[in-house]
Amino acid sequence: MKLSRPLKIQVIGFWVSMPAITLAWNAILYPGRFLTDWRVWAFSWPLIYGIGIVSWYIHIQYDHYIRRKYPTLRQTNKRIFLKALANLIVMTPSVLFIFYAYDYFHILGYHLRSADLKWGYLIGLSINMLFETLWEVLYLLEKYRDSLSEKELLEKMNMDYEFENLKGQVNPHFLFNCFNTLSSLIEEDKKEAEHFLDELSKVYRYLLRNNEDGISTVEKEIKFIQSYYELLRTRYGEGLQLSIEIDRRYYPYQLPTLSLQLLVENAVKHNIVSRQQPLIMEIFTTAGNKLVVNNNLQRRTTNKPSTRIGLTNIRAKYKLMKCEGFQVVEGENNFMVVLPLIWNNN
Description:
By secondary structure, this protein is of the alpha+beta class. The chain is built from 9 helices and 7 strands. The chain folds into 2 domains: 8-150, no CATH class; 189-340, Heat Shock Protein 90 (2-Layer Sandwich).
């Protein structure tokens, strides 16, 4: 069996408990003179200490062996049973060796008395159970803390993985729609197509730089949506109108990256956008750390097939961040989405 180094708490426990054990056993061995006879201090105390160190070290090795064999929280009952069994039939009875040895060699004139065995056994059992319980409680606390850390790490890894999946859905979808727009513009107006391509490069540069963490500040998202709106206006002209009113104190706050772009894109996709029936969109902040995206509702008679990326994507991101408050409100004449803003601790 591989020898284990005692833990600091086990070493401290030994040096705290051993004087009390030595005093108690000497009181049993030499009642009436265990404090006054110098020979007890000179011979009996060091002898009991030496035997105690050997017994304690064997106890520690057994304790660590059981921990290695049954290390998990689910194996706690088995671990406690084996330790208690060892204390009852091996560890504690071994301390009785002291009394038999003292009697056999008549150390300092000692003769075994039946009551001595009872009290010696009870003292040994009590001390062993006390510190064994303490060690096990500390071990359980450590394992529980480790399990929480592992759980948090797994949750973070899962959240990162989910974010990557969501970003992977957004980027190709966004780029695909832009290429469709660019393709249409090339046929209609090559000069506007060049302008559109220039704006597209700026927008996609932002997307690549700021979509790494899955979260961005309100200030960055507003600047991005303004650039994105320029792309849309290139195609739709006066058929699309966007007003933005953001309280500057909310600029440092955060929200899932590309949330505004997804909502604007979703509105354009599912509503009529024309000079005769302009799609009017508003982005503004309200009390309670909320950002609202609102548009007039004028459904297309033939809806384009939904990819379920927009609202589902944003809702999923808020769920991953365990942030409540995301709302979708649909009325007779308008469609509104409420985004809770997240305070940036940095």
